[in-house]
Amino acid sequence: MANTINCPVCGKLTDSRLDSCPHCGAYLKSRRQRHQAQATAQKKTCPRCASAVQPGDIICVACGTNLLTGQKIVDEAKLRQRRRTLPAGWLIGIAAAAALVLVIIGLWYYAATGDPRSRAKRLVAQGRPVEAQGVLEEYIARVPNDAPAILDLARLHWNAEDFAKAAQAFSKAASLDPSNVEAAEFAARAAARSGKSSPREMADLLLRTVALKPDDAALWYTLALARGAAGDLPGEIEALERVVALRATDDSAHWSLGVAHALNGNPVLASTEFLTVASGPRKAEALAGLGFVALLQGNADDAPRRLKEAVDAGPLESAGQAYVALGRMLLAQGAFTDAQVNLEEALAAQPDNRQARFLRGLCLQARGRNQEALPDFETLAGSPGEFAADAAIQAANIHLAANAPDKARRALDPLARGGGKTAAFFTAQGRIALATDDNEGAFQSFDTAVRADPTYASAYLERGLLHIRREAIGPGLADLDQYLKLVGDAGAGTRVEEVRGLADQLRQAASSGPGKTAAKEGGA
To answer: How far is CA 202 from CA 185, 227, 244, 261, in A?
Structure first.
């Protein structure tokens, strides 16, 4: 056997690893070998961590290795504790992931419940548009340049028919986003429907819109109307020409362009446009337009014929104004009866046409039918509006002609209180003073009228006649001459011929008796 030797003393077999023979007790190893074995036994170390171990130890106290087998024994309690206690890196990662989840949930909740636009849309869906407006208005007050939110608010105002606020919101949205066609277009539409925007503001809004939609004929037509209302005739014509270029068969566009050319003093171009549609659905309006052109050209014969053809052609919205224009022209020419006939037609088409009523009163007055003219003047004077002041003065003149100065004064009272003190007012006031024998008061009124408006012919006539009554022939003749100069041919059919004859007589008298005339002028 590999581990047995013969005892050197007794010769019997024994274990070579023993220090002495079990048979005879003799030492099997030398003294040096025995000392080394004892030192090794006393200084035994752990085979894994090299820590010193005591004889008889089974487990290394330093690393927990089994000294008999050389395997490391793990403390199960520590292992279980280690499994329950995760590393710090894992804890940080889990915390970050949880925070991310919370952020995502918060963002989703804000989008569903906190975003103002989403909240507003949800409120509208619930039938609560007023609350939706409040949500958006509060948000826009904090974030004033959020174009989508402003556009949402503009739509809410539009649906609520609050067009003034809608116009402001749409305009702001269009300013923030110049490419937004909807914002620009509805800004103009809302402004038009609100009735609070000036034509110039409307034109500016529409100009911005057509820049985005240059082929939209309807927008160009609306721009033309806005420019026309703002008094921009060249701009109106430019816009209408664009409409005609986009829609060559649009009779309304051709007719409107003809009217614009007529108002702009170009009857030739106007006639061209009217003739373009004279055989179409707008034949009546086209013929009326040709009648206007005839009036502009001073053709009093062709104008009535065209207008009569227009009326016979069918319903005509513009007939009233056409007849008014014709009546005004005939009145200026002294054709009072013909003028009245046309003005009657105008009132039949437009009973509320104040200009037609005033001009008809003048025709009746010029024909000596004052009592028939008085109701027209009193109707106009009794209601605010165009021609009210002029009608009150004409009513006062009729009362003076009927020798009723008190009624004439009452007719002027509203003007005296309301600040309507024009040259015509002072002239009528002077006539009332003459009717009550207040010559000095009359002279002061006529003199005030001349200073108020040096081009008002009637004031010179009345002051001149008063000068002559006071035998101041020179100043009186000068006033009569100024009256004739101001009236000119426009006074055909009035007192102008009578005044001219009086002035000629005075000149003849002055030339036949210069000394007497001079004396009278000096004593005036």
So the answer is: 11, 8, 21, 22
Residue carrying structure tokens 């985005």: 212
- 3-state secondary structure at position 340: helix
Rounded CA separation 310/346 (Å):
13
Question: How many Å apart are CA 151 and CA 163, to the nearest integer?
Answer: 14
Please, where are the H alpha helices in 126-180? 129-142, 147-159, 163-176
Give the predicted TM-score (pTM) of the model: 0.47
- Separation CA 209–CA 198 (nearest Å): 17
Rounded CA-CA distance 361/440 in Å is 31
Cα–Cα distance, 499 to 464 (Å, whole number): 10
3-class DSSP assignment, residue 200: helix
Return all residues near 125 (Cβ < 8 A) that are at least 6 apart: none
Q: What are the CA-CA distances from residue 157 to residues 153, 162, 170 (Å)? A: 6, 5, 10
SS (H, E, C) 424-450: HHHHHHHHHHHHCCCHHHHHHHHHHHH
**Cβ count near 368 (within 10 Å):** 11
Q: Report residue 3 as tokens.
A: 């581990």
Which pair of structure tokens corresponds to residue 190? Answer: 């809302």
d(CA 293, CA 113): 66
Residues 6+ apart with CB under 8 A from 434: 442, 466
Residues 6+ apart with CB under 8 A from 225: 236
3 state DSSP class of 417 = helix
The pair of structure tokens assigned to 23 is: 């048979």
Instruction: Walk along the chain (524 residues) in steps of 10 and give the mean pLDDT of each run.
Output: 70 73 69 54 68 72 71 55 54 59 50 70 87 88 88 87 85 81 78 72 79 86 79 87 90 85 85 86 81 76 75 65 75 83 86 91 92 93 86 92 91 77 88 91 92 90 90 89 80 70 84 52 39
CB 265 within 8 A of CB 236: no
HSE-CB at 1 with a 13 A cutoff on CA atoms is 9
- The helix (run of H) or strand (run of E) holding residue 67 is none
- Between the alpha carbon of residue 191 and those of residues 158, 186, 196, 219, 259, the distances in Å are 11, 8, 7, 14, 25
